[in-house]
Protein backbone atom coordinates (compact mmCIF):
# COMPACT_ATOMS: atom_id res chain seq x y z
CA UNK A 1 0.00 0.00 0.00
CA UNK A 2 1.31 3.39 -1.00
CA UNK A 3 1.68 6.15 1.58
CA UNK A 4 -0.90 8.08 -0.48
CA UNK A 5 -3.54 5.44 0.28
CA UNK A 6 -3.04 5.28 4.07
CA UNK A 7 -5.99 6.80 5.91
CA UNK A 8 -4.27 9.03 8.46
CA UNK A 9 -5.49 12.59 7.92
CA UNK A 10 -8.21 14.08 10.13
CA UNK A 11 -11.00 16.04 8.49
CA UNK A 12 -9.62 19.39 9.72
CA UNK A 13 -6.34 18.81 7.90
CA UNK A 14 -8.21 17.72 4.77
CA UNK A 15 -10.25 20.90 4.93
CA UNK A 16 -7.08 22.99 5.15
CA UNK A 17 -5.40 21.12 2.28
CA UNK A 18 -8.41 21.30 -0.05
CA UNK A 19 -9.96 24.61 0.95
CA UNK A 20 -13.29 22.80 1.33
CA UNK A 21 -15.46 23.38 4.37
CA UNK A 22 -16.04 20.56 6.83
CA UNK A 23 -19.69 20.65 5.80
CA UNK A 24 -18.85 20.10 2.11
CA UNK A 25 -16.52 17.21 2.91
CA UNK A 26 -19.21 15.57 5.04
CA UNK A 27 -21.77 16.17 2.28
CA UNK A 28 -19.56 14.46 -0.30
CA UNK A 29 -19.22 11.56 2.13
CA UNK A 30 -23.03 11.40 2.57
CA UNK A 31 -23.41 11.30 -1.22
CA UNK A 32 -20.99 8.35 -1.38
CA UNK A 33 -18.31 10.21 -3.34
CA UNK A 34 -15.63 9.79 -0.69
CA UNK A 35 -15.27 7.00 1.86
CA UNK A 36 -13.06 7.84 4.83
CA UNK A 37 -12.28 5.26 7.45
CA UNK A 38 -13.42 5.75 11.04
CA UNK A 39 -11.24 5.41 14.08
CA UNK A 40 -12.46 3.58 17.17
CA UNK A 41 -13.76 6.89 18.48
CA UNK A 42 -15.57 7.67 15.22
CA UNK A 43 -13.08 10.20 13.87
CA UNK A 44 -12.89 10.34 10.08
CA UNK A 45 -9.50 9.46 8.62
CA UNK A 46 -8.63 10.39 5.04
CA UNK A 47 -5.73 9.57 2.72
CA UNK A 48 -3.79 11.81 0.35
CA UNK A 49 -5.60 9.96 -2.44
CA UNK A 50 -8.88 11.09 -0.83
CA UNK A 51 -7.57 14.68 -0.80
CA UNK A 52 -6.85 14.46 -4.53
CA UNK A 53 -10.28 12.97 -5.16
CA UNK A 54 -11.95 15.75 -3.16
CA UNK A 55 -10.12 18.34 -5.25
CA UNK A 56 -11.34 16.57 -8.40
CA UNK A 57 -14.91 16.51 -7.06
CA UNK A 58 -14.74 20.23 -6.20
CA UNK A 59 -13.49 21.04 -9.71
CA UNK A 60 -16.26 19.01 -11.31
CA UNK A 61 -18.89 20.69 -9.11
CA UNK A 62 -17.43 24.06 -10.07
CA UNK A 63 -17.77 23.05 -13.74
CA UNK A 64 -21.50 22.48 -13.17
CA UNK A 65 -21.71 18.74 -12.61
CA UNK A 66 -24.10 17.25 -10.07
CA UNK A 67 -22.96 14.82 -7.39
CA UNK A 68 -25.00 11.96 -8.90
CA UNK A 69 -23.21 12.48 -12.23
CA UNK A 70 -19.81 12.41 -10.54
CA UNK A 71 -20.75 9.26 -8.67
CA UNK A 72 -21.76 7.63 -11.97
CA UNK A 73 -18.38 8.53 -13.49
CA UNK A 74 -16.51 7.08 -10.50
CA UNK A 75 -18.56 3.87 -10.68
CA UNK A 76 -17.68 3.47 -14.37
CA UNK A 77 -13.99 4.08 -13.64
CA UNK A 78 -14.04 1.55 -10.81
CA UNK A 79 -15.69 -1.03 -13.07
CA UNK A 80 -13.08 -0.39 -15.78
CA UNK A 81 -10.34 -0.98 -13.21
CA UNK A 82 -11.99 -4.23 -12.10
CA UNK A 83 -12.37 -5.35 -15.72
CA UNK A 84 -8.72 -4.55 -16.42
CA UNK A 85 -7.55 -6.57 -13.40
CA UNK A 86 -9.80 -9.48 -14.42
CA UNK A 87 -8.46 -9.36 -17.99
CA UNK A 88 -4.86 -9.33 -16.73
CA UNK A 89 -5.57 -12.32 -14.48
CA UNK A 90 -7.14 -14.28 -17.33
CA UNK A 91 -4.24 -13.38 -19.63
CA UNK A 92 -1.80 -14.56 -16.96
CA UNK A 93 -3.66 -17.83 -16.51
CA UNK A 94 -3.69 -18.42 -20.26
CA UNK A 95 0.01 -17.67 -20.53
CA UNK A 96 0.75 -20.01 -17.66
CA UNK A 97 -1.38 -22.75 -19.21
CA UNK A 98 0.35 -22.46 -22.58
CA UNK A 99 3.81 -22.47 -21.00
CA UNK A 100 2.90 -25.65 -19.14
CA UNK A 101 2.01 -27.49 -22.37
CA UNK A 102 5.42 -26.88 -23.98
TrEMBL record:
Positions of transmembrane segments: none
Matching PROSITE patterns: HTH_MERR_1, HTH_MERR_2
SMART domains for this protein: HTH_MERR (SM00422)
GO MF, one example: DNA-binding transcription factor activity
Stored Pfam families: MerR_1
Alphabetical keyword list: DNA-binding
PANTHER family in UniProt: HTH-TYPE TRANSCRIPTIONAL REGULATOR TNRA, REDOX-CYCLING DRUG-SENSING TRANSCRIPTIONAL ACTIVATOR SOXR
Name of the molecule in the record: DNA-binding transcriptional MerR regulator
Protein's organism: Guptibacillus hwajinpoensis
Amino acid sequence: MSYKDKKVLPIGSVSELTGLSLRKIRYYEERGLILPERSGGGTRKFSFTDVEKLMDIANQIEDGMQTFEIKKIYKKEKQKDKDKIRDEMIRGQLNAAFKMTK
